[in-house]
């Protein structure tokens, strides 16, 4: 039994990383696997008791506080909290589609439960966070929650909602933002509609994507960047067939490859947001310039080996 006042005067901060999808988007929503990496850009949440009569959320970088509100409500339902809370968020993730919604959810749940003196296992933090993300978005595979929670590059089983393999490997990447904000829910619905109307076609694309994810995981273990790059290119073609790429993303992907990348693809739901390229160090500058020349903005980031942290 926790004595609330032992904790209420203290401020506690927790940071969670953003993510980039490496391979397997969309198919993972239907239970197939994906490879995702956490990145070295963080979302930090601090929690303390508020002097006001209601919970206060100060989130200067975001106008959408639904994830924080729902996370607080869920934790309150599980563990009674007397008085009101002051939650502040600080984000390095911008609005590039780097997983700020899942990062803020994981960070709030971890911060609040720790603040209350509860040490929940990662699986429980995952379940609570995934519940919040689903209740706001209505859908989603949970890959982003897993990346924020565990860190590193993870093989996420979309069916079991489990991390089945982890890789502490520093992938040499370049990330370009297409300057268009992607509407993830809309893109997932678009693929869902295609799946209803062309079931066999979409199922065969999903199976191909799943094979690419498996092949990518082997290449990753062997640090075989050439094969991993080819797998990325193939995955991008599959995403084009699903109708989720855009001319701008295609241009950024193909110019990155022409400038010397091992491979490249859109990353995430598509329709905008980011592309990712696997790049030999010697070609990094040329690839970044080629992405910029196609209208992309380079987002400097690296793989992060650490997940949510206190
Ligand atoms: O748009 P993002 O970066 O949140 O990625 C969405 C990836 C999907 O597979 C399309 C959806 C999901 O939840 O897995």
The proportion of residues forming helix, as a percent range, comes to 40-55%
The number of helices is: 10
Question: What percent of residues are in strands?
Answer: 15-25%
Main sheet makeup: 6 strands, mixed
Structure description:
The structure is a single chain. This protein has 310 residues and is an alpha+beta fold. It has helices at residues 4-8, 66-78, 100-115, 122-137, 143-150, 184-197, 199-221, 225-241, 247-258, 284-293, and strands spanning 12-23, 33-49, 56-58, 85-91, 153-157, 162-167, 173-177, 263-267, 274-278, 297-298. The strands form two sheets. Strands 1, 2, 3, 4, 5 and 6 form a six-stranded mixed β-sheet that branches. The longest helix is centred in the C-terminal third of the chain and has 23 residues, at 199-221. The protein is globular. Residues 1-6 have low confidence and may be disordered. Bound molecules: (3R)-3-hydroxy-3-methyl-5-(phosphonooxy)pentanoic acid (PMV). (3R)-3-hydroxy-3-methyl-5-(phosphonooxy)pentanoic acid binds next to helix 5 and helix 6.
């Amino acid at each position: 039994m926790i004595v609330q006042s032992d904790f209420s005067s203290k401020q506690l901060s927790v940071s969670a990383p953003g993510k980039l999808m490496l391979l397997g988007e969309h198919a993972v929503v239907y239970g197939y696997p994906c490879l995702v990496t956490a990145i070295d850009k963080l979302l930090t949440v601090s929690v303390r008791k508020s002097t006001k009569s209601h919970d206060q959320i100060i989130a200067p970088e975001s106008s959408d506080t639904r994830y924080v509100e729902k996370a607080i409500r869920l934790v309150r339902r599980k563990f009674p909290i007397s008085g009101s809370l002051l939650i502040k968020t600080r984000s390095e993730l911008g609005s590039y589609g780097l997983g700020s919604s899942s990062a803020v959810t994981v960070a709030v749940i971890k911060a609040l439960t720790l603040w209350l003196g509860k040490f929940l296992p990662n699986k429980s933090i995952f379940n609570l966070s995934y519940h919040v993300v689903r209740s706001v978005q209505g859908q989603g595979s949970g890959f982003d929650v897993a990346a924020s929670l565990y860190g590193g590059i993870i093989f996420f089983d979309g069916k079991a909602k489990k991390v089945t393999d982890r890789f502490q490997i520093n992938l040499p990447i370049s990330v370009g933002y297409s300057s268009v904000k992607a509407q993830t829910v809309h893109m997932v619905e678009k693929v869902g509609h295609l799946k209803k109307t062309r079931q066999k076609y979409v199922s065969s694309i999903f199976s191909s994507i799943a094979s690419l994810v498996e092949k990518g995981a082997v290449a990753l273990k062997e640090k075989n960047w050439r094969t991993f790059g080819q797998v990325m290119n193939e995955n991008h073609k599959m995403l084009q067939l699903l109708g989720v790429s855009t001319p701008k993303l295609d241009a950024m992907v193909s110019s990155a490859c022409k400038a010397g990348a091992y491979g490249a693809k859109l990353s995430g739901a598509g329709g905008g947001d980011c592309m990712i390229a696997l790049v030999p160090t010697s070609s990094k500058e040329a690839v970044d310039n080629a992405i910029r020349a196609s209208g992309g903005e380079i987002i400097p980031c690296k793989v992060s080996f650490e997940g949510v942290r206190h």
